[in-house]
Amino acid sequence: MASSSTAPEQTRSLAWVVRAVKDWVERCGKVWVEAQVIELNRRSGPTQFLTLRDVEEEISVTATCHRRVLDAAGPVESGMTVTALLRPTVWSRTGRLSFECSEIRPSGEGRLLAQLERRRRLLEAEGLFDSRLHKPLPLLPRGIGLITGARSDAERDVIRNATLRWPAVRFVVRNTLVQGARAVEQIIGALAELDADPGVDVIVIARGGGSLEDLLPFSDETLVRAVHAARTPVVSAIGHEADSPILDLVADLRASTPTDAGKRIVPDVAEELAGLRDVTARIRQSVAARIATEQSWLDSVRSRPVMMDPAATLDIASERLGATLARLRLATDRALETESREIDHQLRSVRAMSPKATLDRGYAVLADADGASVGSVSATRENARLDVYLSDGALGVTVDAVRPGGPATPTTPSPQKGTKS
Questions:
Q1: Which CATH class for the 135-267 domain?
Q2: Which of 50, 254, 264, 367 has the most CB atoms around it within 10 Å of its CB?
Q3: What average pLDDT does the chain have?
Q4: Where are the beta strands (DSSP E) in 126-176?
């Protein structure tokens, strides 16, 4: 950049100055810096803004980066110390100095958090954190396995709060290291032992608060897989509300503190007794209401006339039966009378057509010696013996003469004495 001049005649344009400054600043190129993220504004667009501050001096700058840079860095949050690859630049239109960040690497606790986040994502992709795989806790466990540090506050908190709620609770305690290199091995061994105990219905892994490094064993992948494979429900009670190791995600129940775990693994005997009294009262009230309803229905049924005087119905039925029988007898008499008249009529018709009726009217029937009826003069001859049948008997006669022709006229006019030959 050219040296400055005080002579007004040698002025430069502002654009020339900004471009010169931009050229000089950008000669620095990309530089790795260690800084603390004091503000991070995530936006919907690709460009993200963050404010970085020097770790020792009160110097801060605003930097921009692409969304992919933040996503690749893992969980970047305000207050985290990072190592960032910055490139200083000057905006030509405003002359404002800015920094472009092309890579971010968490350092210190930030590096640990980034490692834990990558581990969490891999285990989540395998389905180890699926809530549908979580086993329900028993209502009243026969035995509670407790894995925690020896004579620790976490052990006392879990046992004391559980005993206050259910005095008869039984604990099977396994004291292990809860931090350090050997903690994971001991916790996994205690977990396997308690998981194989048929008298243990739920297992609590508890520890008080601590730093991120102290809680690293509870984010160990081997321990997480062992808890996932356990047949007994596991409760995670690690640290305080803000602490969230990976164990919390795979456990069947996450308790915010050991005290909270003691309250959630057993029911409160006082609450259960109060609930039992309330349920008993509601059952009795329901039974009393049902009895009252049924009694009301029974009273209503008993008040009906048929129930007050059961014979009344029988009397009515008897009257109906008597009336029906009377109608039946009347119909039977009428039918018999009609049929009797018809029979008389038929008898008269039959009798009118019978030979005896003809004989009763004064006629006679002739029969030859063989008994054959003689109805014509050609059927007999002179001197033939004939039988004459009258209404009151028979006569034996001999034919004196046979006279063919029209009907003969009797010589004797009286019909009672007349004879047909």
A1: alpha beta
A2: 50
A3: 86
A4: 144-148, 171-175
Contacts of 156 by beta carbon, 8 Å cutoff, 6+ apart: none
DSSP one-letter code for 373: B
**What single string gives the DSSP state of each residue in 176-196?**
---SSTTHHHHHHHHHHHHHT
Distance CA(300)–CA(295), nearest Å, equals: 8
Mean pLDDT, range 4-31, rounded to an integer: 81
Taking alpha carbons only, the member of 389, 409, 387 closest to residue 397 is: 387
Nearest to 73 by CA among 63, 55, 85: 85
Could you tell me what percent of the chain has a pLDDT over 70?
92
In the sheet with 171-175, reading across from the earlier edge strand, the strands are: 171-175, 144-148, 202-207, 234-238, 253-254
Q: What angle do CA 319, 320, 326 make, to 5 degrees?
A: 90
- The answer to whether residues 283 and 275 touch, using CB atoms and an 8 Å cutoff, is no
The Cβ of residue 226 has, within 10 Å, a number of other Cβ atoms equal to 19
Is residue 158 within 8 Å of 261, Cβ to Cβ? yes
For the chain, report the end-to-end CA distance as a whole number of angstroms. Answer: 185
Domain boundaries, the chain: 12-107, 135-267, 270-301, 354-421
List Cβ neighbours of 358 (8 Å cut-off, separation of 6 or more).
Answer: 365
